[in-house]
Amino acid sequence: MDKFCGKYSLEKSENFDEFMKALGVNIALRKIAQFNKSQMTISQEGDQITFFSESSFKNFKVTFKLGEDFSDTSPDGRKVINNMYLEDGKLIQKEKPAPGESGKEVTYVRDIDANGDLVVVCTVEDITCKRFFKKI
Questions:
Q1: What are the boundaries of each domain within the chain?
Q2: Which of 64, 104, 109, 131 has the most beta carbons within 10 angstroms of its beta carbon?
Q3: How does 79-90 read in b/e, with b if 16+ C-beta sit within 10 Å?
Q4: Threshold 0.90, pTM exceeds
Q5: How do residues 78-133 score in pLDDT, each as one tens digit?
Q6: Which fold has domain 2-135?
Q7: Helix orientation angle between 16-23 and 27-35, rounded to the nearest 10 degrees
Q8: pLDDT digits over 13-40, tens only?
């Protein structure tokens, strides 16, 4: 998990609008998200991992333990249950709608590239997007 810890700045996204559209995100929020440059900090204290994302639009923070389900609200307002775990050196996040909520299952695969930067592959149904974060 140590290799993921650090602060990252969003550099670019590929197919992000199609990904958000597949999730049912409205056009106004999609337009804001497309041009929003966020920074993400990943940290760990003991077995607690924290993701803190900050931007001019919205900040959010989530703390969790690997391999344990946790409730969350996605940046676009969906109530979800997440589980994150390490597999083959990658940080995998499985997200599903919270009980009683409608929505789709999403998978996020985080990896660190050869430059130490964070690459996130987001998949919903047959739509995949990539987000590239530069380590700062």
A1: 2-135
A2: 131
A3: ebebbbeeeeee
A4: yes
A5: 999 999 999 999 999 999 999 999 999 999 999 999 999 999 999 999 999 999 99
A6: Lipocalin (2.40.128)
A7: 150
A8: 999 999 999 999 989 889 888 778 899 9
